[in-house]
Specification:
It is a single chain. The chain has six helices and seven strands. It is of the alpha+beta class. The chain has one domain: Bifunctional nuclease domain (Roll). α4 crosses α5.
Length: 163
């Protein structure tokens, strides 16, 4: 399993890597929020690079996933556990840590991600939708880092708008 500091060190040595290796670099991002830009009725999850050039990735998500992310960002809890709340509770009950969420690829206009979980000395990366990974990461009592690969940032990352 890779720690976040190792990812940052890898990014610092990016000039030494071949092009395919550079595309796999994981860039730390922050969850900016979920918006609905009319006239589209679909929510969009926005992730932004923590470091320059602060590219943003806009990921279309489903209504329930968008609501789950927005409620977690606002630290709102439902009177009864929703799906992501339940899954986070199960992971915590069985001492499974969520170590990171990585948006790994963009294929045919579909974003792909993985969630890296660990228990004791064992870890595993599980494929997931970016929205589910982010919704789950926001429900943990500790900060779960979110990353986007350079491949995705080059394909879908937008530079910040000035003005």
């Amino acid at each position: 399993m890779t720690d976040p500091g190792e990812t940052d060190r890898a990014a610092a040595n990016a000039d030494e890597l071949d092009e395919p290796d550079q595309l796999n670099l994981q860039r730390s991002v922050t969850v900016v929020g979920v918006t609905v830009d009319l006239p589209s009725p679909h929510p969009v999850l926005t992730l932004r690079e923590v470091e320059y050039p602060w590219r943003a990735v806009h990921i279309p998500v489903g209504m329930s996933e968008g609501a789950a992310i927005a409620s977690a960002l606002r630290q709102m809890r439902s009177p009864r556990p929703l799906t992501h709340d339940l899954f986070a509770d199960v992971l915590q009950r069985f001492a499974i840590r969520v170590d990171r969420v990585v948006v790994t690829d963009l294929v045919d206009a579909t974003f792909h991600a993985e969630i890296v979980m660990a228990r004791e000395a064992e870890s595993a990366a599980m494929p997931c939708r970016p929205s589910d990974g982010v919704a789950l990461s926001l429900r943990h009592p500790y900060a779960v880092p979110v990353f986007v690969t350079e491949r995705v940032l080059r394909a879908a990352g937008a530079a910040p708008q000035v003005g």
